[in-house]
Specification:
Shape: globular
Helix content: 25-40%
Strand order of the largest sheet: 10-11-16-13-14
Number of strands: 16
Radius of gyration: 23 Å
Largest sheet: 5 strands, antiparallel
Structural class: alpha+beta
Amino acid sequence: MPPPNWALAQRALLAAYGEGAREFAAKYLDEGGFLRCVERWGGNDGPDDAMENFHNWTLVYALGGPEALIELYRKAWEGHLVQYTKARAPGVEMAREGMFYKEFITAFDWEHTGEGLAAFHFYALARPDDPVYRQRVRRFAGFYMNEDPAAPNYDPQHKIIRSLHNGSRGPKLSDASEQDWGGEPVPGRPERLTRYRTAANIRGDHPLNLCAATLAMNAYMLTGERKYRDWLLEYVGAWRERVLANGGNIPTNLGLDGSIGGEWGGKWYGGTFGWNFWPQESGRNYYIRGPRIAFGEALMLTGDAGFAEPLRRQIANLYAAKKAEGGRILLPNKHGDNGWYGYTPDQHFDVQRDMYLWSMQPADLEHIASDPWIAYLLGKNPGYPESALRAEFERVRRQVQGLREDASTPDTRSSDHPQRYNPVSAGVLVNLTLGGNDPGSSGNILHSRVRYFDPARRRAGLPAGVAALVEKIRPDDMVLTLVNTNAVHARKLVVQMGAYGEHQCVSVTSGGRTVKVEDRRFTVELAPGAGDTLTIAMKRYVHQPVLGLP
């Protein structure tokens, strides 16, 4: 098979990511792995941003990206642990003795904590046997299972995380000051603090806290210890019941007694970062980020499609309240005493892609059938692979040009500043090579139809020179083309069903021949310059997910 354009583009893009990452790290990291910036606390630019600058590097490595991605990530990760353990904010209760404690944020919200951990979570796909990593995952998960007496974040009686601010020093149950949210004052920038003037009440649970479920999820997949699975299903299952009991609307506050709206006068739409909070910022409503992550993890663990139902009900409720304006459909992003308001274009395409890919039910396509990638999978957008890869090449070029022209200096640079120049992106390759939706940067796991390993180099990802294209995804099978773009050397790769081996391969049909497999994985040998299209019959969600190299 002469290599198609998409195959050559995939391989070139992976190489470009490595080159761009080297230049990015050389500019923004010092020799010890410290981010060259002003260290600050809070939701404007804080410790989480140090690693959000690298949030997709570990995932792209796990897809087959260059070794530089994982090595530079490790340098940044280890450096930022030291940097932010030393960094202090004297005016902030939880940061006056260091912003990190036991290598974890002392107490903050999971909008930010989840973003700071995104690359850490995907490291599990890349180096699951790393003993230090395994130790950290267990310790971090333990902060939410009351295994650390200094961090009683979880209330097992009411099945809640007790505050919007939580972490290695436990939940903050007193009012949050403007500095607790925004950090030390910055001369000439009063809005960095005043924007949080109404954000004092952080008591009780919030759907953002569901992002913490990924810690237990990875701990379970790494160790197989049932306690992590049990905790996740207990906590996430309780949230599922609350959403359904609330008519399918996700509450943005649970009281310390477990009641819906318990710290906000019984209003399910109350709460900091909630449905009725910050009316001047319609985007600041984080009701669906944690549920998308946690309900998807529970579904993977159980195969129970009912864990997607709260998301489906929430989307349906928003569409039931939609408005048409200028030929566009607008959905409410706010709810107050007088009902729905804050109308914006639909912001939930990622959630809706997830729901469709989990269920494979036509009804879940209703609002996303025109999405370019989904349309391609449905056979209606055949040019998508090449156009998406071409656009991604242009994005990398712009990012590298931007970082080269960046005139900021470490003494004025915020920790989130380099994000705008990150040359590495995972979304297009996750779509095309794995048949998965982009997991985003919020601390998710990976949902996909397949994943690959290189047995020669004993690492995760596509072997050198091998390209993959998922062409169709159906309830019980998929169509996958594999190409060895190297005209001289043969390649061997392991194809795994699901990101974590949660699916089963029944058989593979290729060249008119069907081979029975009945396993989580199978091996493909590709002669020099060879390729073929495989139809893979499969059963989904029949295995417990695991993290490990074959």
